[in-house]
Write a structure and sequence with these properties.
The complex is a heterodimer. Chain A is mainly alpha-helical. Chain A has ten helices and no strands. Chain B is of the alpha/beta class.
């Protein structure tokens, strides 16, 4: 390189361009990661297909007051699971390792402001969720799913659920060691998959079901089911539970997140 | 080339719990120069540099970088500096060119990424992701990330640690090119040779303080005494020789016929000694000047070996 090549010409790119670049990179990293794809794509798809076609758990289509096939009960739960897998598990693990490997630290010395980094992370989660919802909807429709209800209510629930799970995921990533986050995020994913009304109806847990109903995954799957399976109007109770988790989780993450 | 101070550290104190990492450190970096912060592991080099980068808030003292407070004015400062961390800083699943292109996109007028990849020999990384790159490739990528945004000032934390000699020379060459183009460079190192080869200024750091700062020549001249040796007939009148030499010079005959003069050995002193020898009919055989290296200076100032 010739003389003058490195002559200083500093300056930040326009913030919109930085956010777009960061979102694209974060999304590519996520889609390239095999373990992440297992969580976000393969497990939800597999559960949807498996539980719709094989009678592993008796799906209470009738008892929940709705009609239709097993897939009508399962599809909303699996959509909730997909949101959790990306906004909580995937984001917690990825961010935990970015923190561990100094990526967050290095970006902290770049022109990209922290708020722009968090915006890009959120956008990356949303892009991934759009892809997941499109894929899972296609599979569910192929299995005979007939969704009801107001799409706007569904959208609002998905956004609230994303906020709630993102807060909890970032709280974990920003406070625990990366290995602990990896283990805990997977464990929580598994526990909430079983105990959060995704494929197993909460009624099966007896009295404990009332407590489990307060979990964000239960509120999201129950809310989505109310709308999509039963055509109910906006389930404000579930929305409120999600909003409370979002405020608590994001607030705690903002307070306790450590960048290094 | 202007020489105003672009980094000014005054009385910096930084503690981690009960441990004091930096204990009243002063540092000045002149614009357009290469400054080496030299010291053993644990001396406080990284803490000092990371405070200048805005990562650490000082517990005492003041830090100004390009006239800005690195914490309070972070948003204004960060686009103007380049940072190479001691390790890490890259997504483990990212490829070298991908990460470098990304860093370039965060800046308004970045360097040509392909040319930089070529210059640093990163072209061979191909589609390999960061976690599978060799240590040397990771170091060079990190260096490239520090300069791609065309900063005014770059901080390189141990830029050649773990590099083979050839890669080390290539990195030194890049540092010289940066300086030639008007970029100010601050680097930490525990390689004496690196400081001697590269730096206009060296700050020797030990136990959280700067033990001495100056050009390598100044440090070698000022901090430690140099030695002049010669041989001649035994039993020369050293008292007469000393009278001709400046105050503070010492002369000895450790073995019969071998002489040692210690003090500020400069051209004038050498001329005085040879003149005195000529006047006394002495042929100063095997006359030699032993220059002190930074290593000697360091040992003298800190009582420690530098090598980690």
């Amino acid at each position: 390189m010739s003389t003058g090549t490195y002559a200083p010409k500093p300056g930040a790119a326009p913030v919109g361009r930085m956010i777009a670049a960061q979102t694209a990179l974060e999304t590519r990293m996520l889609l390239r990661n095999g373990e992440q794809l297992l969580l976000t794509v393969i497990i939800p798809s597999l559960l949807l297909v498996l539980f719709s076609t094989v009678d592993i758990v008796t799906v209470p289509v009738a008892t929940t007051g709705g009609g239709g096939e097993a897939v009508d009960f399962l599809a909303p739960g699996v959509l909730a699971l997909a949101v959790m897998s990306t906004a909580f598990t995937g984001q917690a693990i990825a961010t935990g390792f970015e923190r561990r490997y100094g990526v967050l630290k290095r970006l902290g010395a770049s022109p990209l402001p922290r708020w722009a980094l968090m915006t890009a992370k959120t956008l990356s989660v949303l892009v991934t969720e759009v892809l997941q919802v499109a894929l899972l909807t296609a599979i569910a429709l192929a299995l005979g799913w007939s969704p009801h209800g107001d799409p706007l209510s569904v959208l609002l629930l998905l956004v609230l659920g994303t906020a709630a799970f993102s807060g909890l995921g970032l709280l974990m990533a920003g406070t625990l060691k990366a290995e602990a986050t990896l283990a805990a995020a997977n464990l929580v994913f598994l526990l909430l998959l079983v105990g959060g009304g995704v494929v197993v109806p909460l009624e099966k847990f007896g009295a404990a079901g009332d407590v489990l109903a307060l979990l964000p995954i239960s509120a999201l799957s129950d809310g989505l089911r109310d709308v999509l399976q039963n055509g109910a109007s906006m389930p404000w109770g579930d929305a409120l539970i999600l909003a409370v988790w979002a405020v608590l989780g994001l607030g705690a993450a903002a307070r306790f997140f450590r960048w290094e | 080339m202007s020489h105003e101070s672009v980094v000014q550290v005054r009385g910096l104190v930084k503690r981690y719990g009960s441990k004091t990492a930096v204990d009243g450190l002063d540092l000045d970096v002149r614009a357009g120069t290469v400054t080496a912060v030299l010291g053993p592991n644990g001396a406080g080099k990284t803490t000092t540099v990371e405070t200048c980068e805005g990562y650490r808030r000082p517990d005492g003292g003041t830090v100004r970088v390009l006239g800005l407070d690195p914490v309070a004015d972070a948003a204004a400062l960060r686009p103007r500096i380049g940072v190479m961390l001691q390790s890490g800083g890259v997504y483990s699943g990212a490829r070298a060119d991908e990460m470098l292109r990304h860093m370039a996109k965060l800046h308004a007028r970045p360097l040509d990424v392909d040319a930089l990849i070529e210059r640093l020999g990163l072209g061979s990384c191909g589609r390999t992701t960061y976690r599978r790159l060799s240590g040397g490739q990771q170091q060079r990528l990190s260096l490239a990330m520090a300069v791609v945004g065309r900063p005014e000032l770059v901080f390189l934390d141990e830029p050649t640690a773990g590099l083979d000699p050839q890669a080390r020379r290539s990195t030194w060459e890049l540092v010289r090119e940066l300086r030639a183009d008007g970029v100010t460079v601050v680097l930490t190192t525990h390689f004496m040779q690196e400081a001697e080869e590269l730096a206009d200024d060296v700050a020797i750091v030990d136990a959280g303080r700067v033990a001495a700062q100056g050009s390598p020549e100044e440090l070698c001249r000022g901090g430690a005494e140099n030695t002049l040796r010669f041989s001649g007939r035994p039993g020369l009148d050293l008292g007469s020789l000393l009278k001709a030499l400046p105050d503070g010079t010492a002369a000895a005959e450790p073995l019969p016929g071998t002489y040692r003069i210690t003090g500020a050995v400069d051209p004038q002193l050498l001329a005085t000694v040879t003149t005195w020898c000529a006047q006394h009919g002495v042929m100063p055989d095997r006359i030699s000047v032993e220059r002190h290296t930074l290593e000697d200076v360091f040992l003298e100032l800190t009582g420690k070996e530098l090598r980690s």
